[in-house]
Amino acid sequence: MRSELKRRLDAADAALAFVNVGPGDARHRSLVEGVAAERLSTEQAVLYTVDQHGLRIDSRRAPAVRSFDDYLIPGTFVLRNRLVDELHPDGIDDAELLSLLERQISRLRIVELEIRPVRGHFDYEHLKQVHRRMFGDIFFWAGEERVGPETAMIRFAPDAANHAPGDPAAPMTKYSYFSGPEIAEAASVQCAQLSHLASRSDLGRNRFFDLVAEHGGELNVVHPFRDGNLRALWQYAAQLEEQAGYPIDTAGFLKETRAHSVAMHAAFHFQATNDNDVMFHLMDGGLPQAQTARTLPPG
To answer: 30, 31, 159, 281 - which has most CB atoms within 10 Å?
Structure first.
């Protein structure tokens, strides 16, 4: 059970490393370990986390999201959320507190997903269910396709095409993601390709990881959700790879590891160059040693 407990904790910590978050303080860690050991239900841990800040989770019907601006609390740059109190009946507007709770709660839910994963066929609906379970306590729109913007969504990150992972000299550069109207078809196509891979037994390891890197990289460029894409995609891909017989050693991707830095770089490198080589070698190197030594058909 100790090794299984560590696996659950490592999986959640590796996912949170994608948003540059460490293991958390002692109180939070105690809750996470309690859920991982199944001494405490995830619901209890989530409610305790929220209650610590005098908040509760709003169970009212989700407000409509018709445009990209509808994701924000009016007059702020804070995402609408389900964490409320008497002064904030439509969601807290403290960005720092929301970020803290969103990361703490999603870590608890990722541990739960390791214990009771989504059962599905790795299609687009499967990915949506992963996202919904991960973020449903926090956002009304969890598991729902991103609405807008009508043109490409722009984000800025270090230049991954011309600089190595972690290079402090890398300038910030622009990365484009799919517009809202393009998401449904594009995400469905990429998830269908990944779903097909999960059931194939005729691919060697190299070809399998090459295709996962390609379609996973494309799915990240689609960015189907308003927030939480990397964590949801990580969880989805890790489950897919395990089902296909290639379980990833998530301990190798914790925040203090070089693999974590390379993983962040790999997504942007693919986006900038359409070259999945960095992503391929990252995943190939993430297999446990016993798994890499397994005899497989040539790929």
So the answer is: 31
Count of Cβ atoms closer than 10 Å to residue 204 Cβ: 12
CB atoms near residue 61 (< 10 Å):
7
Q: Which residues does residue 51 pair with via DSSP β-bridges, in sequence order?
A: none
Nearest to 30 by CA among 56, 51, 3, 9: 9
Question: Does residue 298 have a pLDDT over 50?
Answer: no
Q: Give the long-range contacts of residues 87-93, CB within 8 A, separation 24 or more.
A: 89/58, 91/58, 92/55
d(Cα 223, Cα 141) in Å, to the nearest integer? 14
Tokens representing residue 171 in the block:
């300038």
Could you report the per-residue pLDDT of 54-92, keeping only the tens digit for each? Answer: 999 999 888 899 999 999 999 999 999 999 999 999 899
CB neighbour list of residue 256: distance below 8 Å, 6 or more residues apart: none
For residue 121, what are the CA distances in angstroms to 53, 118, 127, 191, 197? 38, 9, 10, 10, 11
Buried b (16+ CB within 10 A) or exposed e, 12-22: bbbbbbbbebe
Q: Residue for token digits 């007059």?
A: 75
pLDDT in tens, 159-171: 999 999 889 999 9
Going from the C-alpha of 141 to that of each of 50, 145, 182, the distances in angstroms are 19, 8, 18
| Domain locations in the chain as residue ranges | 2-292
Contact indicator for 282, 259 with CB cutoff of 8 Å: yes
Chain CA centroid to CA 187, Å: 15
Identify the burial level of 293 via C-beta atoms within 10 angstroms of its C-beta, where 0-12 means exposed, 13-18 middle and 19 or more buried.
Answer: exposed
Kindly report the CATH class assigned to 2-292. Answer: mainly alpha
Structure tokens of 174? Answer: 């622009």
Which residue do the tokens 């306590």 mark? 137
* pTM for this predicted structure: 0.93
